[in-house]
Amino acid sequence: MKVVTTLGQFILEKQADFPYAKGELSRLLRDIGIAAKIVNREVNKAGLADILGEAGTTNVQGEGQKKLDVYANEQFISALKHGGECCIVASEENDDYIPIESEVSKDARYIVAMDPLDGSSNIDVNVAVGTIFSIYRRKSAEGKATITDVLQRGTEQVAAGYVIYGSSTMLVYTTGKGVNGFTLDPSIGEFCLSHADMKLPEDGFIYSINEGNYVHFPDGVKKYIKYCQVEDKKTGRPYTSRYIGSMVADVHRNLIKGGIFIYPVTAGAPNGKLRLVYECNPMAFIVEQAGGRASNGYERILDLDVDALHQRSAIFIGSKNMVKKAEEMMASFSPQGTKKTFEGEVVLQ
Known about the structure:
By secondary structure, this protein is α+β, with helices and mostly antiparallel strands. It has helices spanning 7-13, 24-44, 67-83, 147-150, 219-229, 247-257, 276-289, 320-333, and strands at residues 54-58, 64-66, 86-91, 98-99, 110-118, 129-137, 159-165, 169-174, 179-185, 190-195, 206-208, 240-241, 260-263, 274-275, 293-295, 312-313, 315-318. The protein has two domains: 7-195, Fructose-1,6-Bisphosphatase, subunit A, domain 1 (Fructose-1,6-Bisphosphatase, Chain A, domain 1); 206-333, 3-Layer(aba) Sandwich (D-Maltodextrin-Binding Protein, domain 2).
């Protein structure tokens, strides 16, 4: 009989990896897992309840909020407020960060940044959506945590993960010691270890990008797309094009099968569109821990300075060799000057 390891059991077993945490990080991860179960329940019955469609409000990005966006945001914030381990929540759906000031959280040392429902435009058509989260330790030793505690580089993350609500619901996370995936077993209501020590293939055969914006892409991206489409038996090209429109879903597929996800700068989004704090940094942390690579086309995502809560960035993320090839194309056809990226490497000369 196969022994099943639940998320809670796994977290407790790995707690010794973080002697400074005294259990807070473990409890925080469990709180996120509980909120994910609640959101999953609503996502799975979205077609039966009055939670589909627009909520009639917009978030700080000026994007229309779906009803499930708002619901997911409320559930995760509520779980983090009541858990007592979190002193600040920063959400893509809120204009500003949310300080948590209560008796149970007075000694809290952790900050959580999240995209509560990534890919929410897919909700109404029953396509996979997800939650992305990132966890930092606060820097300030005394007083209230501030925006400075939130605006940390991606290298400072102590944990990051995502939940994908699809044909099955999975929670995938890292604490900097590899990546593990847990699938929700609805019969017992528990996330169970299903994908231990996940590794991203160094090479892949899938590229994910919204080619409808091709005319607005930098020349380096256009050249890379054409490279992917040219027939070459030695490298297994042409590659397969797959684009879901949910970063969680696209990156999750590529994490398992190998591939690259690209969301570049465009004429309409000169700084990129995805959020560095809520999307790029946590996904980059996960992918790097699985042996992959993540950059903005020139620099490592995790090394980028964070100057604003809703800062945007381009991202090239996935199988190491595919991302390197895309960076070569950016260096040759869309040069930005000399910039160091990964240790020991220089992309642009």
